[in-house]
Each structure stands twice: as C-alpha cells, then as structure tokens.
Amino acid sequence: MSPPDKSLPVNPGIPKNFSDFINRTGEEDLPPPILNWETKRERRQKYILFLEDVSVTFDGFKALDNLTLYLNEGELRCVIGPNGAGKTTMMDVITGHTRPDSGEAFFGENLNLLDKDEVFISQSGICRKFQKPSVFESLSTGQNLEMAMKANKTVFGTLKAKLSKEDRDYLDHILELVRLTPRADKLAGTLSHGQKQWLEIGMLLVQKPKLLLLDEPVAGMTPQEIERTTELLKTLEGKHSIILVEHDMEFVRSVAKIVTVLHQGTVLAEGDINYVSSHPEVIEAYLGGA
User: Fold this and answer.
1) For the residues of 63-126, what is the DSSP string, one character each?
2) What is the Cα gyration radius of the chain?
C-alpha cells in the first residue's frame, strides 16, 4: 500500500507509512490506520478565500511561487513583506487581473476566481482599494458614495438615479462610519489625504462587499488619522473579511490577530505579530535585522 499524500493531514498518532506501522506492531492482520482524509472541496468549505499552490511568472521572474493562503470568514488578515514579495500579484490574482500559471483560487466554496473576469469578481463581493486614493474630487463626498452604489452601472445614470430610502439610510450610515458626515456636502477635493482614504473605503462599503482588499490604507496619514483608521477596521472586522497589505508595523500590531509574511512569492511565516516579528527568517528578510 502506497503511503498517503503528504499534503493531506494524517492522524498524528499513526505512522505515515503503513509498512512502518506493521513493522512496529508485528501485527500484519491489523486494519489499516485511520486517516483523516479531507478533500479540497471540504477544505474550501472552511474558508471564504482559498488560495492553494498559486504560481505566477513574469518574463522568467516568479512573482508567486506555490503560494497557499486560507482566509476565514470575518477575519482581518495582515499581509506583510518586502517589495517584490508578491503582495500585489496575490491581490491581482484574487481580483481576476492576473491569471496564474498554476494553482487554485476560490471565493467561498464554489466561485472559481480563475474562471471569472474582474467585473464578475467585483460584483460577487470582492472589492479592492489601491494605495493611492481614487476619488472624484470635483464631486461632493456624498456624491462619491452615491456613484459607488450598485444601483446603476453608468456614471451619469448613477448621479441621476433617485436613491431609495433604504439606500439613503445606508449611505448615511457609511458616512458616519467613516467619520465624514460633516463633510458630506463638501467637494472630495477639499478633504485631507486621510479623509480621502476613508472616503474610498466608504465607496467600497456601500457596495456591501464580503471581502475587502486594502493596500496600505494608512500610508501618508497623521497619527490621529491612523488611530481612527484602526478603530474603523476593528469595527469592520467580523462583518467583512479583510486582507490588509501594510508596511507600518506599529499599525499592523494594533489591528492584526494573524499576520502572513510573504517573501519571494511564497509564505515565509504566519502567526500572531509577536511570532512573526521574532521569526529569524522574517527578521533577516523583512524587518532589517535584530
């Protein structure tokens, strides 16, 4: 009998090789050991995001190298790593912008992200915020949120569409959540950098996403703005699943329960912030020494 696939979890009390088990016991008539077999479909059922053995190559450079990452529903996961570690490419794969050479990527149990385009994936509940805020500065804060709502696909149609009371109430809720209610009627171009970041997060939230991908949301913020962003993300945790790519380690420490460290396109370490920040390979690759 061939030994089980090492990629599948095995009952830790049973030798992986059945012949070793026989030799140890001397009882060749014993039944085979009980193996905790688990299909990929069963594994996918556990997570809202399932990335397994994902590889992406650009002109001979491996941007992702058998990357595996699982995200629980409602989890806030911080992803860190040096430039070129694969963070952006990972998000490109999740959103359908980049097709990997190999591997699997599922959203929920059944949505194969590798079969869908960016629009379909976005409409399925995955929303991405890039590092630089992208808002319509000539429109008011409230109009930016209105445009982001899914009531109409076209810019002018969205502006002309009359919001239902339910939509208006939800928009007001998001304005309050991102602390922009006093600025609702002000042009977005007059907002501070941090406020523009909050507005863009609000523009994602009005779409009621299941998964938020946030790329360095506190870059360029004042300490007070970072503190408020920390409070905002803690409020969102549990209601949305969040992948947060960030370089500010103090901010990561304040929000993350689990941190994934990428290096050379694969997971170097994963655990709580104390574990990863003291991991020798992480220190060498990313944190710049002891």
Assistant:
1) EEEEEEEEE-TT-EEEEE--TTSSHHHHHHHHHTSS--SEEEEEETTTEEGGGS-HHHHHHTTE
2) 23
Angle made by CA atoms 206, 130, 163, in degrees to the nearest 5: 20
- 260: which residues sit within 8 A by CB, 6+ positions away? 69, 77, 78, 79, 80, 267, 269, 270
Could you please report the per-residue DSSP string of 26-42? --TTSPPPP-----HHH
In this prediction, residue 253 has a pLDDT band, given cuts at 50, 70 and 90, of: very high
Residues 95, 285, 221, 179, CA torsion sign: positive
> Residue 265: what are its φ and ψ, rounded to 5°?
80, 10
Decide: pTM greater than 0.90: no
Bridging pattern class, strands 258-263 and 76-80: parallel
Strand 258-263 relative to strand 266-271: parallel, antiparallel, unpaired?
antiparallel
Supply the pLDDT for residue 157.
Answer: 55
- Tokens representing 12? 């830790």
* Nearest in space to 122 (alpha carbons), one of 196, 209, 61, 194: 209
